[in-house]
Design a protein that fits this description.
The protein has 399 residues and is an alpha+beta fold. The protein has helices spanning 9-38, 46-67, 71-92, 110-120, 123-142, 151-226, 230-251, 263-275, 295-315, 358-370, and strands at residues 260-262, 282-286, 292-294, 325-332, 336-343, 374-380, 384-391. It has a 5-stranded mixed β-sheet. A hairpin with a 3-residue loop joins strand 4 (325-332) and strand 5 (336-343). Helix 1 runs antiparallel to helix 4, helix 1 runs antiparallel to helix 6 (151-226) and helix 8 packs parallel to helix 9.
Amino acid sequence: MRRRTAVTREQVEIVASRALGIFGAVFGLQALALALDQTAGLRPGAGAAMIAFLYGAILAIGLAALTGTAVRSAALTFALLYAASIVVWPFIVDDVSIVSSAPPWLYYLCTVATTAAVVALPMPWAAVYTVLVPAMYGVVRLLPTGGSASPLVALLDAMYAVILGVVVLIIVTMLRNAAKAVDVAQEAALQRYEHAVRLHATEIERAKVDALVHDSVLTTLLSAAAAGSHDEQALAARMARDAMHRLDEAGAAQPAADDRMRLPVLVRRLRAALASFAAPFTVRVVNTGGVELPSDAGEALYAAAVQAMVNSMQHADEPGRTVRRELRVRGIRTGGCVIEVSDNGIGFDVSDVPSERLGVRVSVIERMANVGGAAAIDSTPGLGTTVSLVWPAGMEARP
């Protein structure tokens, strides 16, 4: 059974922007014929300019939704232009007969405008726009330039637009809140997982130290305390020297030569971690067959790569723009590895990161340095970030 991925804030924004593009195209085509007919009764040039501005903004929304670029800017532009058009409508109508049989053509774009406000503005301002703009249209309908509609008809027209706008506002807000909750829960789960891993490693090390102290130090102390003869004292001295030697070896112990991790195993673990992430990553794997790493190096590469991916999900997103993320794993000969985590998000200035921020300095850079590897961070504001993890350090520079 295929695993269902969680809904992310980025996906919600993509769906909302594409829905806005579809609404704009459908309602725009619906109103176009009436807009052209009513242009004859407006002041010279005013009708053509209004059509050009509003339909140009609708086209900009459609292109922005397709490319994932500047969606909020295009939506905000249309919302402001529509509100301005409602305000100026009574002043540009020369022949009121154009609205005697049909309402002003702007009415058919009201839902597009309120949806654009939901996409472009924070929830409180979007709610104000959703109520205020249809109310402005209702006032226009009461005027001779709006058709001299009865108060009931004007109220029904305004309420219909408000209801549609509120429905869109509620749906998008609920999806955004749900996606935010998923992101927060995922980050909390990752933090709990990392904490559990640290506790497990500490417990294993404590058990090793306890065993060493019990088997060597305590046995030596007990033997020395019970030694009565010269031979027993000599045995206790030899045991003490042996215990001290074992303690020195434990302090400088390195992983055993046969304690290895195959690079394909590391790749599988990274893919498993990605399966729990809300944001998608494109995975590219090259030359991993036959590559083996020391286990401590493999664990450091895994933890640093996961931290880099978490940092990308937390900080790379920009509202209204799709961020592409990649995880690249490349084996070098039979005992080296390069992992790159990259995105085309908002980026940052590495020199501006406060020293107290541990996500980069400790969880990535120092973690790799502690096992003989290296980490490099290349980021430019507005162009994205690439985190490169190399083991052993300088492997790529070797001939």
